[in-house]
Amino acid sequence: MTPKDITLAEKLADAAGDAIRPLFRTKFDQESKSDSTPVTEADRAAEAAMRKIIETECPEDGIIGEEYGTINEGASRQWVLDPIDGTTSFIAGRPIFGTLIALMQDDWPVIGIIDQPIARERWVGVVGRPTTFNGAAAQSARCRELKDAVLATTTPHQFDEHDADHFMDLASKVAPRKIIYGGDCYNYGLVASGHVDVVCEAGLMLHDYAALAPIIDGAGGMMCDWNGEPLHADSDGHVLAIGDQARVDDVLEAIACNH
After folding, report:
1. Least buried of 79, 176, 178, 253, by fewest C-beta within 10 Å?
2. pLDDT at residue 33 above 90?
3. Residue 82 CB contacts under 8 Å (≥ 6 apart), including other chains
4. Contact, 84 vs 100, CB < 8 A?
5. Nearest to 60 by CA among 70, 45, 75
6. With a threshold of 0.90, does the pTM exceed it?
């Protein structure tokens, strides 16, 4: 990983944003994929723009993209792309979706970007460096007790019954009016900037979480699975982002899930 890689990651975010913005709150093509999740022409245009840059500038690197699959699967360096994380929010005209870009080295994320192209908000995380938000240092918040925490999830309706039960165990430990639904990757940026304390998700794919760990960790928080293990290419999609590392044991005890 070099400064050039960080510059390239931001170039990818710029290209994705340029593809997405003209289509936001307009009429655009959309359809359902085989797993019933929506995809739009903006998703595909943004990923195609990013892939073109990587294939030109780093042809030996691998690419794992939500819309167009994997190339150079055995490469030690893999770019993981989610052109629009929160496609339903994009379709609904809600500017709380984001483009996720990660660089993984030997299956571990070393660079991560959350880019919200409408508000032009960008979080950049790099292993060993402080996370930035629009170029300035980002810092997650301290949280004295779990009952004081703001807890976010996209929707527990996407959890299976087992996972939903454990999420509700965690939710019971915070104030009901401090639980927020919706937000997808934007919630993780809010953790990094100190506005949300905990995000809990299940069923995520690599492109959904690979970019997030460097951002949360570099802002002073912790990203892990529901057992407290760090996230990597083979993680099972049960994800926690915790802004205050002092609350990690409290969150893990509350969710009490041994997968």
Report:
1. 176
2. no
3. 65, 66, 99, 100, 101, 185, 207, 208, 211
4. no
5. 75
6. yes
